[in-house]
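Side project, low priority. Logging it here so it doesn't get lost.
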Amino acid sequence: MPKLKSGIYGLLLMFFAATAQAQQRSELIPFGSEAPEIAGLILSGKKGTKLSDYRGKVVAVDFWATWCAPCLQSMPEYDRIRSEIADLGWGDRFEIIGVNVDRDIPKARKFLEVNPVSYPIIGDPIGIAMQRYGPWKLPATFLLTPEGKVHMIWLGYADNFADDIKELALELLEGTGFPE
């Protein structure tokens, strides 16, 4: 188990219990699985961006929606840790990709004008990525290894999630994360 801040083990146990209960609602992609491709409408970032462009990097994939209050908290925090990881010299090996799940793309674009982030955002208005990853709560963040495998999953948002994502990402970048 990776080193995490105290209290996270309780959150992880709650996550696993909730995941077991949620199997009836949606099938969450299992840990260690190859992360499915994500491509779609580019709401922010380079035209044509897709997840496979980032193979070889540690990637945090964050599913969010404009109507999701915890997403409003998580996005600036994820932007902060992205910048902090870049400042530590890992900017070329780490990325966050946002996946907006709103059906109303103009509303999502307007939201990003008011709440900009520095990482790419892909629109998933018909829910293809949501179906492939299976999150049943937003925000939902999937930390991927450089090999493109699901390393950790966070459903919802708590104040320590961004720092935990940063810590695990740095462990993967430094080669001290879980063995594959």
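Brief comment: Residues 9-24 have pLDDT under 50 and may be disordered.
Revisit when time allows.
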